[in-house]
Amino acid sequence: MQAKKKEKSLMRRIKRIKTINKYGKFINGFFLNEKKTKIKDINKNRIKEYSFQLYNKQKIKKKFLIKERQFKKMCSISKKKNKPLICLIEKRFDNIIYISGYSRTRFEAKQIINHKYFLINKNNNNISSTILKIGDKIELKKKFINYDRIIKSLKKIINVPNWLNINKKKNQIEIVKEPDTFKIFEKEMINFYIK
Q: In order of start, what are the domains of the chain with their CATH numbers?
């Protein structure tokens, strides 16, 4: 009896692994056997819509290293101010440090900010989720200029976006204009939280 139960549980695991390998990373969140379960077309469309919203949201969260709570807050701000969500995400303090080439990864940018390497408008700031405005100036503190991690990251050649003005001699970054937004499914992500 116990051997049969073990075999059945093993077979279930194998089925799950096969379905994961078949559909890759993008799965609806649960597994459906087409032979056993019959779902109406309406429910299928709902599941597809939800999974599509969830997939896009998770993709952006992983790329920009944003937590769920912060992402919710940014969605509500973008809805109130009628600004594109991706603009707000691009103008985050940690993202600007990463884009400008002062860190090799976004995680390293967060760490550098947490250790107070930079000044925003000549004021200390160690909050990486700060959303910056046009005209804000970010400056590297003089005592951190000769640090190895910053020298290594500045050696890399980076395509700097046109909405940032970087002066590497003075170690200053200035936001000149709004970032250019690329096509993204913003309505779907905002609707994900409205429900």
A: 92-175 (3.10.290.10)
